Amino acid sequence: MEKQKEKTSLWRALKRIWDREGERQKEKKQRKASRVPGQRAKYLGKVGFWLLIATTVLAAFISFQQARITATQIPQQKKQGINQALTPQASEFGRSFLQAYYTFDATDEGIKTHETKLAPYLVKGLDSHAGLDVSSVQGSSHVTQVTLKDSEAKGQQKAYITYHVEGNILRKWTEEKVVEVKQGAKKVKKKQKQTKQEDKKFSQDLVVPVEYANGHFSVYDLPQFTVYQQQATGEAYQINPKYKAYNGSTREIQEFLETFFKSYAEDDADKLAYLVAPTITIQGLNGSLKYKEVKETDIRVGNENEILVWATVTFTSPETGLVTSTHYQLTLQKGKKEKRYLVQEWNRR
């Protein structure tokens, strides 16, 4: 009897679940039937819109990452193609090395200090004093000036950099001198040690072998003595023959040049700016020199009919009276409103 009741209860429960699910399906069909036409299309449109936004953002992010990688790679590639041992940084490194190289005190402690100061400059295995025998001089040394003279490539990242070094060596030594000393009523000659010193200037041309590796400069070999001889190898500037000679009247141009260079030498920035086009800025001499004359001019016509002037101008120093001539190149054009000449370009060769 109890088993029959349990079966009846189970059947009723299953029937309720079945009826409830049937009602849900019926309601679902009714909602579909009552849905406004085009709502499904609108839903799909929203989904497509957000997919498009997501795709665009992803593409932009990928492009940004690629551009950033390219931006970091290009300078590295350019940097690898340059001999870093010929850069100004390498020249400054060599200058700093020579300052430490020729600065020492020939005492036990001074010799150790010299070795310590040179260590950051030298490659492993090189003499710790870079070939300099500090103990050979009784005294001290210091550098007054190091001047760069030349640099020559010696490999992909190596160079010989030539400097002229000037300094002072203070030499100290001991001499024995016979002197008379009193011993009671008598004078006796005795030898006494006396310390003497001499401050002597020195100058030397040296070649410093500089190498760039792993992001650092180093001296890869011992400095070499040399005698540097300055020799000019270039030629004086020549005006490009493509610029034809100016055939018009030059009187107005000559007058403008005199006015301009006098203002350039002696006037303040505001007065000078009146003679210069607003597209450029020229720093004048602010009275440090006095204008004397425009000695020579070569006036030609540019590709756009602008007036090109090459001038040799002479100035006088108010302090010393020394007269100096120098070259200038100007591009002149008349202003549209003022109808007067203005300097459009300055010292471009």
TrEMBL record:
Keywords from the UniProt entry: Membrane, Transmembrane, Transmembrane helix
UniProt keyword Transmembrane helix, yes or no: yes
Transmembrane stretches, start-end: 43-64
Matches recorded under Gene3D superfamilies: 3.10.450.540
Alphabetical list of InterPro entries matching this protein: TcpC (IPR024735), TcpC_C (IPR035628)
Name of the featured protein: Conjugal transfer protein
